[in-house]
Specification:
By secondary structure, the chain is an alpha/beta fold. Helix content is 29%, strand content 22%.
Length: 371
């Protein structure tokens, strides 16, 4: 459970009068598992569920992105130590407090919702903590707990903001009974109906070819648009039943990659949001970091990018006098603080055209400029 490994930064920095010799290659970041690790050493704790069968691969990808960022970004006055856990909230809670006992002055993690909830239950945190997920109830969170991550609910809300540029007044939301789809439906609806005169209705997705015919009745010319709270496979199955003249929106769930022309061609016309890391390889923030061949799927690439921006956000938190002043272009999107405890990443907008995802040039500028 407690696999304490030390990550070294790619600089030489003096810490409390002692000189730290810094590794120059990622493979040198980790000290041997049986290396002596003195307690009471001020450090940054990276808390990840590397021992979880369900989340281990994702955690390792986040870790690799985090390590990548250390090779380029601004120096820090602390070493970084990795705390490996399972996904058991109690295990995470224990590891978190062991990190504090060992001298952690800042914690990055946990990665899972249950883990974040376990830490948030402490009510009062001794050190700033940047989580990599969120919690259902964000009321009365500890003041030093900052939420960051790849929350799909936030994306659904941002997609609603994108959909507002269509000029339509009625949204038809198509989703299934999965917990994620329900959260997307709720987030989109709340943001959409926050505008005066905007209405919404929900239609249930079905795989029955006969029942799918109902979607052909969503005729063009009416004052409505469609939001798909569905994954890429189901969105693709449904697309041919939707009138091509009706605007259709979705989250990043719909984007697998830009190389699968046949798959993407069936999604033509759908507008969605995703991160610069996947959609804009020439983005200045993206070109600054090396990519990895290990992160194969789009979801893993997003997690790798999350690791990069988690490190960058951590450096801002360590050096900024006020969290409200923190904002920067990240590889996961434009990152800004949203009171009381969350950091929001604003994605970029794209549309499938001839089997490729192409950026949308919005007349009012990027989504984050249209608050």
């Amino acid at each position: 459970m407690q696999c304490f490994l030390s990550l070294a930064l790619v600089i030489i920095f003096t810490l409390y009068g002692s000189s730290l010799a810094i590794a120059t290659h990622p493979e040198e970041y980790f000290e041997p598992e049986n290396a002596f690790k003195p307690s009471g050493v001020p450090h940054i704790a990276l808390l990840l569920p590397l021992e979880s069968p369900s989340f281990g691969a994702a955690a390792n990808t986040v870790k690799e992105g985090f390590v990548t960022a250390t090779t380029r970004d601004r120096p820090l006055p602390f070493i970084i130590r990795l705390y490996s856990t399972t996904d058991d909230p109690l295990d995470i809670f224990v590891a978190y407090h062991q990190a504090l006992d060992a001298g952690a002055v800042f914690v990055v993690g946990p990665l899972t919702r249950d883990g974040v909830s376990a830490i948030a239950s402490s009510k009062i945190l001794a050190v700033p903590t940047l989580t990599l997920s969120t919690v259902e109830n964000q009321i009365s969170l500890p003041s030093k707990l900052y939420l960051f991550g790849l929350q799909m609910e936030t994306e659904a809300s941002q997609t609603a903001k994108l959909a507002l540029t269509s000029g339509k007044n009625h949204a038809i939301i198509i989703g299934d009974d999965s917990s994620l789809s329900r959260r997307l439906q709720t987030a989109f609806t709340e943001r959409w109906q926050n505008e005066n005169g905007k209405t919404a209705e929900l239609l249930r997705y079905t795989e029955d070819p006969v029942k799918l015919q109902q979607f052909r009745n969503l005729a063009a010319g009416a004052d409505h648009l469609i939001f798909l709270a569905l994954d890429a496979t189901r969105s693709r199955a449904l697309r041919s039943y939707l009138d091509p003249d009706v605007p259709v929106y979705a989250t990043s769930q719909i984007f697998i990659d830009n190389d699968n022309f046949l798959f993407n061609n069936d999604l033509n016309g759908i507008r969605f949001v995703d991160m610069p890391w996947l959609l804009q390889p020439d983005h200045p923030a993206v070109t600054a970091y090396r990519r990895t061949d290990k992160a194969g799927s789009a979801d893993m690439k997003r997690l790798y990018a999350l690791g990069i921006d988690a490190f960058r956000l951590m450096t801002h938190l360590l050096q900024s006098r006020s969290v409200r002043e923190i904002s920067f272009d990240g590889v996961t999107g434009y990152i800004r603080f949203a009171p009381p405890n969350q950091f929001i990443r604003e994605p970029i907008a794209a549309q499938f055209v001839n089997g490729k995802a192409q950026l949308i040039n919005l007349p009012e500028g990027p989504i984050h400029e249209r608050q």
